Amino acid sequence: MAIINDIDLGEFPLFLSPMDDITDLPFRQLCKRHGADVLISEFIASEALIRDVEKSRRKMLFDPSERPIGIQVFGNEEDAMLRCIDVVAEAQPDFIDINWGCPVRKVAGKGGGSGMLKDIPKLLKITAALVQRSPLPVTVKTRLGYDANDKPIVTLAEQLQDIGVAAVSIHGRTKTQMYSGTADWTLIAQTKANPRLHIPVFGNGDIATPQQAAEARRRYGVDGILIGRAAIGNPWIFGQCKQLMFNQVEPRPVGVAQRVDVCREHLLAAVEFKGEHTAIFEMRKHYGNYFKGLPNFKQFRIPLVTLTSLEETLQVLDEIKNYYTTE
Questions:
Q1: Domain 256-325 annotated CATH 1.10.510
Q2: 60, CA 20 to 30 Å: which among 28, 53, 193, 222?
Q3: φ, ψ of residue 257 in degrees (nearest 5)
């Protein structure tokens, strides 16, 4: 049983990992309906929140059906992040997640995200201040360390616990690895096995199939798993993981008709939430996975990633359904 303070997350929670311009409200709701246990917002810049930037404020919006949900923030300046905590707390998520893990240049290059792993004393100082400020549980998402020669995660997780962090999520790569190579779950397991660590440890990295999720649970002893890129255009992965882990049922492939129906549902919800122009542009990131592996798909892929009209896009989805279900 995984618990963040007094929030019961279930026997072995599956998280939808936060991804910019991906894990918005419509997609989170879709993943929730297909089995995700815990949702986290897109990561939000602390500076943008305290400047009241509309796009960042909208990233905090969530529906009660999404609970338990965390709002994730990043930054590198203590004052801005403290003020940001006040803004996030007003939205009343279940917990606040601090991003000390993002490796992309626009975040880490400015000292935020996993860039902070180069200065652990500052990371701990800011985190301790945020824990003291927050009326809600504070969790941390991070990486093994900054580079191959600096992987302090076992010690760091214990230090985070000792300053009041309620749970840690660990991506099994360093900052400099970005998303290359293979995630090292052995260090995640060592962190969880630390007898002085009593808070939940959630693992992240390279979980692309239900079989990999079940194997990670069996081998590494973590309290739950985060699924990120593998959920894009594939919200079914959460339910499939549960089928395999809890019922020992090998998941069946999702049929084309269902793929089209759920993709259509996702698109319409995104249009309602963000408007037609933005939704159609951002949905292009999902189509490749919704229709992965279909033969002769190029004739549909090109219009899906170039059309700018909702009506035309829906027509293409209908054509996909007809083509693959009447062959």
A1: no
A2: 222
A3: -60, -40
Catalytic annotation, pick one of 31, 84, 102, 241 = 102
Whether residue 326 is predicted with pLDDT greater than 80 in this model: the reply is no
CA 64/CA 83 separation, integer angstroms: 25
pLDDT tens digit string along 162-177?
999 999 999 999 999 9
15 forms beta bridges with 38, 226
Choose the CATH number for 2-247 among 3.40.930.10, 1.20.1420.20, 3.20.20.70, 3.30.2130.10: 3.20.20.70
**What 3-state DSSP class applies to 316?**
helix
Q: Which amino acid does the sequence have at 8?
A: D
β-bridge partners, 300: none
Segments making up each domain of the chain, as ranges: 2-247, 256-325
Which residue is it, tokens 């279940």? 94
Of 21, 18, 112, 33, which Cα lies nearest the Cα of 70?
18
- For residues 211 and 209, what is the distance between their CA atoms, to the nearest angstrom? 5
d(CA 31, CA 231): 8
CB atoms inside a 10 Å sphere around CB 270: 24
d(CA 12, CA 15): 10
Q: Is the pTM of this model over 0.90?
A: yes
Q: Is 102 a catalytic residue?
A: yes
β-strand 14-16 against 224-227: which pairing, if any? parallel
What span, in angstroms and rounded, lies between the C-alpha atoms of 173 and 188? 10
For the segment 263-312, what is each residue's pLDDT rounded down to a tens digit?
999 999 999 999 999 999 999 999 999 999 999 999 999 999 999 999 99
Do the domains 256-325 and 2-247 match in fold? Answer: no
Please identify which residue in the block is written with the tokens 């403290």: 82
Query: What is the C-alpha to C-alpha distance for residues 197 and 200, in angstroms, rounded to an integer?
Result: 8
